[in-house]
Amino acid sequence: MKRVLIAMMVLCVETPLAMGQSANVVNSSRSNIKNNLTVSQGTDGKTHCTVANKPCAKEDVEKLNAALASRNAAADQAAAKAAGGATKSGVKSVALAPDGSLTCVTIDGKKQPCAAAHVVELNNAAAAMPGANDGIHGVGIGLGKKPDPSKPSK
Question: Parallel, antiparallel, or unpaired: how do β-strands 37-41 and 47-51 relate?
Fold first, then answer.
């Protein structure tokens, strides 16, 4: 009986390892979430945003501005608590330029084309946008929210 148990245990542990997987790895990949807003430096040297591999629309930029405002407010509260321990982000808001690139308004009020230094900050704000971590609905198991029990299911 011991031999059978040991053989089963070895089989259960070794099989995932032989397949190139670890038994205790959690898939934290967001590759299955296709419609997130992303900001990147284009080949033209300008900063662009895309949603589902298409240029951002005015509504997308408005959502990004709301996320930036929320992050700045949170940084203000943290700075007040820590007496200067946290600082506001460098970008106050963004706008779409006529060529489709992003224009940043910094905290000190300067309006300028968004630079490479702003990309990380804008992507962090985009990741905090409402719905950024929702799963794909109707396909497998998503990361979405629990259904509201007061609403009838479809």
Answer: antiparallel
